[in-house]
Write a structure and sequence with these properties.
It is a single chain. Helix 3 links the parallel strand 1 and strand 2 (68-69). The protein has five helices and six strands. It is of the alpha/beta class and 162 residues long. The chain has a six-stranded mixed sheet, with helices on one face.
């Protein structure tokens, strides 16, 4: 009888520890790949209906000073702003994809939010993304690129520790 109680306590403690580890890992922001850290130029692709958000990003990028704005064909990265309400033209004879890159589920953005994503300009692969609360063209709670700057600073610290 005492063995079962002891075993239950250990199982409970082990389960609590696993939950704590899972919560810590789930709460971590996505890590920036090295290609983002070494990039110098960025093109802004505003897929929202709000030019104010693009202006905000331009101001924040200029203030941050890490990236220079560039044309799409010369940029190291593409910074995509999307609100989930954009429409893509599909050529005749083609159908929208429901899986893979740019699938509907991957493009879903909660109402009142804007997704900020860094993409590889050649492949279109998403290298990093975050979601920020917005109301129309207005940014709520801080700056639009706060999460990106935080992820960048953390990746720089990790890279410098190596």
């Amino acid at each position: 009888m005492q063995v079962n109680e002891h075993r239950r306590r250990w199982v409970f403690l082990l389960a609590m520890a696993m939950c704590g580890i899972a919560a810590t890992v789930a709460g971590q922001p996505p890590v920036l790949p090295e290609v983002v850290l070494s990039a110098h130029t960025v093109y802004i692709d505003n897929q929202t209906a709000f030019t104010e958000l693009e202006y905000t990003v331009v101001l924040e990028i200029n203030k941050w000073g890490h990236f220079q704005l560039a044309d799409r064909d010369k940029a190291d990265l593409v910074l995509v702003l999307s609100s989930g309400t954009h429409v893509h033209a599909i050529p005749d004879g083609q159908y929208p994809r429901t899986t893979g890159l740019n699938a509907f589920a991957e493009d879903s953005v909660p109402p009142g939010h804007t997704r900020i994503a860094l993409q590889d300009p050649k492949s279109g692969a998403t290298l990093w993304s975050g979601i920020h609360k917005t109301e129309g063209g207005k940014v709520k709670n801080g700056h639009l690129l706060d999460e990106l700057r935080q992820a960048y600073e953390e990746a720089e610290k990790a890279r410098n520790k190596r």
